[in-house]
Amino acid sequence: xxxxxxxxxxxxxxxxxxxxxxxxxxxxxxxxxxxxxxxxxxxxxxxxxxxxxxxxxxxxxxxxxxxxxxxxxxxxxxxxxxxxxxxxxxxxxxxxxxxxxxxxxxxxxxxxxxxxxxxxxxxxxxxxxxxxxxxxxxxxxxxxxxxxxxxxxxxxxxxxxxxxxxxxxxxxxxxxxxxxxxxxxxxxxxxxxxxxxxxxxxxxxxxxxxxxxxxxxxxxxxxxxxxxxxxxxxxxxxxxxxxxxxxxxxxxxxxxxxxxxxxxxxxxxxxxxxxxxxxxxxxxxxxxxxxxxxxxxxxxxxxxxxxxxxxxxxxxxxxxxxxxxxxxxxxxxxxxxxxxxxxxxxxxxxxxxxxxxxxxxxxxxxxxxxxxxxxxxxxxxxxxxxxxxxxxxxxxxxxxxxxxxxxxxxxxxxxxxxxxxxxxxxxxxxxxxxxxxxxxxxxxxxxxxxxxxxxxxxxxxxxxxxxxxxxxxxxxxxxxxxxxxxxxxxxxxxxxxxxxxxxxxxxxxxxxxxxxxxxxxxxxxxxxxxxxxxx
Length: 535
What we know:
The chain is of the alpha+beta class. The chain has helices at 6-23, 30-33, 38-41, 49-52, 63-84, 109-117, 153-176, 203-211, 227-232, 285-297, 334-346, 363-417, 423-452, 457-489, 493-528, and strands at 46-47, 54-61, 89-95, 98-103, 122-124, 131-135, 137-141, 146-151, 184-188, 192-198, 216-220, 239-243, 249-253, 258-259, 263-270, 277-283, 303-307, 310-313, 325-328, 353-361, 420-421. The mean pLDDT is 83.
């Protein structure tokens, strides 16, 4: 048991050396990191929000707005279906979650119901994608030709779940383009999203990025009357009055000629003539074709660029735009142009998000937490060192060397995985300091027991390691199962951060406390050939 082949020895030393190498970037100054290879310099532990400060925002999907939008979509679909089926109708309207319509000829009522039921889709389970057996729409009728299409609660709940899932991905894309490191974005409850961005001290900018739906559309400006006349009287049915960049009204057609969904790229830049900040955009083939057709038909007319129901620019089309690209100008600052480009590249949110809670954690608070964690770690390590040396002598020194390697390997694994270290994570590190030597205590006590039974020093050491292995594995496997459950079911970021640290600590404990300690003792035995145990 104390024999190590050359291959095993080299493997243990290589693992230890690599652990030290990947943990080094966490303690080296920035001037030294700049001279290291990029693959090594980027390998470091990221501090969480509670350690380096940053912004914390809790967002909620605007359910009523999502339901209203869905009801309006169903209204438009009902209009299309009835027209395609050549069924006369009147009084098409939306009331809460119901779209009602009256069929002119009662004899066509059943035909209308049959056609409209084709709009209903089965609701799928969000986890496995299986059908739940329920539909997202129900269709009912009466003898007098009244037909109602109602959004089911199951369908609305599924749509809200889907909106949260899509919003998480879009939020992640938007924040990633800010250049921040390791944002924590996760679902909270059925309709809320928690966003924590370590290192970002400007919560207002984060709110402006996340609070905008960023639904971009290109529409024609209605020239049939002035915006003031529309405000004072009644605008045309197919037009609406929207606010411009400086608060001035615009009468804009409701029909979307080109959608922001056809954008493939958006980049901030400067106008070559005026040098003012602009955003250049580029469409995909479908968007480029539609944009070319519209610009050919509307030469000499103003073309409104609408973002979240606000006109950000309304340039006059001087000539057809055939290249599938253009630019947006609107008196932007450099940061506004950059943020708008980020919003357009990341895509539109499926529903508006409301800020429920926001707070900023200052870096000084994080520095205090780190300092407190260091003090706790030093005290814990010191007490463990005193105990191990006092009780186990030279073997205690071997255990402390293994403890140092254990902590180093923990940080190297966190660096390789790109894990985020939080305050609970520091607590996990401190906890594993005691756990790391616990296996050594079991081994050393086993060795003492074997020596008391009359075995020689070498035989007692060998037998002690053999008999302790089962106990060590049992204890660590059960602890590992608990840690995995804590990670999977913990939900919140801090709980998962603690679980990750705990899991890594258990894995490195088995390697350092058993394998590395055994290697050191084996070479000591080979060198000294002891007749008596030093414990």
